[in-house]
Amino acid sequence: MTDLIQLWNSTQDLYERFDLDSPNEDRRRKLIEEVLELITVSVLEDNGHGGYRDIINEAADVIVTVLGLLQGHDIEYDDLLTAMGRIAEKNNAKTTETHHIVNGLITRRKS
Fold first, then answer.
1. Rounded-to-integer distance, Cα 18 and Cα 20, Å
2. Residue 46 to residue 42: CA distance in whole angstroms
3. For 21-49, how does the pLDDT look when each residue is reduced to its tens digit (9 = 90+)?
4. For 29, phi and psi rounded to 5 degrees?
5. Cα–Cα distance measured from residue 60 to residue 84, given in angstroms and rounded to the nearest whole number
6. Between 26 and which of 1, 22, 57, 92 could a Cys-Cys bridge form, CB atoms 3.0 to 4.6 Å apart?
7. Residues 34, 58: contact at Cβ < 8 Å?
8. pTM to 2 decimals?
9. Which residues, in sequence order, are bridge partners of residue 2?
């Protein structure tokens, strides 16, 4: 099974293997393309025309492209892990007392 560090290293190795130091503008454009592909296969699957595997593959492509963008900004892997921990803590702190659903989204309650 591949974990995030393996995917991080694989993404970095891919850029190095092709001697590619893409500008972040190109990396952002690629991310938008991959996100749109994920959305497309998700909609197709919702309508009975896509597949579970297609969604997983596109999601993995999005993650790889995000990692490439982070690397383009010289972000370190450990800093990504720290940020992921902060976000997990933030998510874990949300309760039905602090947040509620508005238009299908978890939204902070007004004080």
1. 5
2. 6
3. 999 999 999 999 999 999 999 999 999 88
4. -60, -40
5. 17
6. 22
7. yes
8. 0.89
9. none
